[in-house]
Amino acid sequence: MKLAIGNDHVAVDMKKEIKEYLESKGHEVIDVGTNSTERFNYPVSGYKVARMVADHEVDGGVLICGTGVGISLSANKVHGIRACVCSDPYTAKLSKQHNNTNIIAFGARVIGIETAKMIVDEWLNASYEGGRHQIRVDMIKEIEETQDLKAAHEE
Ligand code: RB5
Fold it and tell me: pTM of the entire structure?
């Protein structure tokens, strides 16, 4: 797979290890940075990865900051992005199977490198199941595009 990876200053070491790990598994990984431990605003790398995913330049994205929260929130502001911050491999897997996530995020201050590797493995090995989940993913898209949700007025 072709993947994009991005991070802030807190997550430089973990990003490097995860990038190498993904490459060792045969993935092509585009690193949008940062590779400096100087203070770095996470929306920059969150946006860059999200843009590449939304524009189908890559097949998916990995984002890492201190908690994974700020960088995933930033990515989710780009239309078409479904970024999930998680700390466990089960959530990562289900986020792909049920929610069709296209970016996975986690926190370098929250989890260790082995859990991070398990998270990317589970996420990349999982496939979106579609079916009954599609109506909900479509609703997420409807909220994004219209700032409204028809079904919310019907119940
Ligand atoms: C940086 O101090 C920290 O706020 C950032 O890495 C991240 O945790 C934000 O969500």
Answer: 0.97
